[in-house]
Amino acid sequence: MSSIENRPAGSVAEPQGFLPKPCTAAWAALIGLALFTYRLGAYGSGRLLMGAALCLTLLKGQLVVDYFMGLRSVRPFWRIAMAAYLIVVGGVIAVAYLSA
Amino acid sequence: MKTASSAQPLPGDFAIWVFIFAELLVFGVLFSAYALSRMSNAGLFDASQATLNRSYGLVNTLTLVTSSYFVARATRAIRHGRSAACGRWLGGALALGALFLAVKLLEFHDDFSRGITLSTNLFYMFYLSLTFFHFMHVVLGMVILGFVAYRTYAGAYDANRYTGVETGASYWHMVDLVWIILFALIYVLH
Amino acid sequence: MKYSSQKVAMPYFIAALALFFGQIVFGLIAGLQYLDGTFLFPDLPFNVTRMSHTNLLIVWLLMAFMGAAYYIVPEEAQTELYSPKLALVTFWVFLAAAALTLAGYLFVPYSQLAAMTGDAILPTMGRGYLEQPLPTKIGIVLVALSLLFNVTMTLIKGRKTSLNLILIGSLWGLALLFLPAFYFPDDTVKASYGWWWIVHGWVEGDWELILGALLGFILIKMTGVDREIVEKWLYIIIAMTLMTGIIGIGHHYYYIGAPAYWIWLGSIFSALEPIPFLLLVAFAFKMLLQRRREHPNKAAMLWALATPIVAFLGAGLWGFMITLAPVQYYTHGTNFTAAHGHLAFFGAYAMVSLSIISYAMPLLRGREANSPSAQRWEMTGFWIMVFSMIVITLALTGAGIVTAFLQRSGDNPLGFMQVQDKERVFFWIREFAGLGFFSGLLVYLGSFFISGEYDYASEAKQALSA
Description:
The complex is a heterotrimer of chains A (100), B (190) and C (466).
Chain A (H helix, E strand, L loop, with lengths): L21 H22 L3 H22 L7 H23 L2
Helix pairs in contact in A: 1-2, 2-3
Chain B lengths: L1 H5 L7 H25 L3 H9 L3 H26 L3 H31 L8 H32 L9 H26 L2
Helix pairs in contact in B: 2-6, 2-7, 4-5, 4-7, 5-6, 6-7
Chain C lengths: L8 H27 L10 H32 L6 H24 L2 H7 L17 H24 L4 H17 L9 H36 L3 H22 L12 H11 L2 H16 L8 H26 L1 H7 L3 H30 L7 H37 L7 H7 L1 H23 L9 H10 L1
């Protein structure tokens, strides 16, 4: 696991000012969405509610991909591949739940 | 900055990404199997799901998301050459990983004391095996993070050499990502 | 070859090829017995032919793995083997035990063999692949212990590379996973568990790690790619193998009396078992693309690159086709299983053994590579064997599908022998393909007798004049 490639120091600029770092904002959003999804599940059932919970879950996934994994700053291919994964898995789940 | 950054390769070692995609494929198949087998057993799944203590799931989601955030901060710190901060963030992430395992064990204990086994019904079979399989991934992720943390304290990484940190971090984020879907599927959707 | 003690690998490799030859001869006889049930009866009943065919397979693969270990471990550890003499003694003990066992199969009725060898004291005989008499089984354990002692001591005194740790670790696994061979309870469910721990634990777990280590070694040597890169790939391949293979054992538990949840766990996880084989393919070709040198041993490179592909087809694809519980319900124990078994054993384990033999034998004989004409013979043998094995696989698959439809499903299923009669065309194709395989094997073995070594100067001259 030793490093193979070297990159110049500080290739990611430190944000200045009062705005939180992007990953901090993503974390706050993830916490909020997790609590909200949990409440949705406790609130009741129904297709609309469950659809919303599933969509929020996929959104959470994409937040992790973009801001934690940092795929926002690499070649778009990888980010799209991850999004496609989330959509396919989410799609299978949605179809299975709708036809249950 | 935009043009410069979009040319960046995947963070960490390419081999870990091959592994991550293989893992995502495995979990994707597991999630699909759960959803598809629910199709003809929706009533059973919903009734069984209602017996779970969903607070465990929520606490673990918050724990793992925060742990993943700590790891993101650790990666950020080492990119700026702050290896001491990187080590501290990694230590925090590991502590939260341990908390996740503890909560999950507590939940397993509850399940087993309720007499639940793999044979109870199809929902519990999936619930137990999926969460246990993920549990083992948390353990593996912690082993990797622990190794990275050890190397960080040993001074192996700095602002110019941090591929190892990114490699371990990417895997940990995958473990988090998979749990987010798992949480929704097993504890929320019905 | 860098250390003179690596030379002990040579008798192992030669014996492996001789036993391989024997395996194919028994295979051809067994194939004929499918077409003419009385062929060689009662001198050589089908069960004895089959048992000899499969046992020779196991023994020659073990011979090749051991030879590979004695070759690789010193080179990786950068030190002489701890005790070359012990390795040589072990070889003769193993060979003698194998020969005696085979003679026992051929010349003594099996029940009498069991009575003679103390099967009443500790019953172990009678299960597929584990037909060996008790003394042979104990012998296998002692041979394995001797190997493990020797290579572990070599590792301790030498350089500790990840590749060596993986190889030696998986050899320990091989030995430990053999121990359930001594567990044969009356309870058929428990007996099945024990049997599958060995069979599945070897071919769908531990041996895959050995395969990875051997392939990794060959690719490091032949492509000149950094060992760190190779080792990283090996780690992820191992992780995927264990992740899918350990729970994947459930696909053997479907209808043996195990709890019902294995139907789900076994189906899902065994369906994922092709992933590590796919990773092996990606690994081999990525290393090829990143190569830093052109190794003159083209034949070895061909074997090494083809191994993961054929293994993926045989173990991955053919295994996947019959692994899901609803499919397995109809195909269990048909020739579809035999088709999978043939292409998987050949593609994964026979071919990786032939790869390391192809790479190491010229070096053991004091040359970097064989002469181009010897390599052409070897590669011709390669293509004939691979092609024939694919035809065998397809023929057996056809027979298996016919059984599944005519005998296992439908409203008016036919009897076993009626269906066997309808499958004769497949058995004829299989037998002819078997003869093809045998001729390929002869061509391959013939390549060892073409003298001369690879000569850079004359090759370069030829290339320029062409």
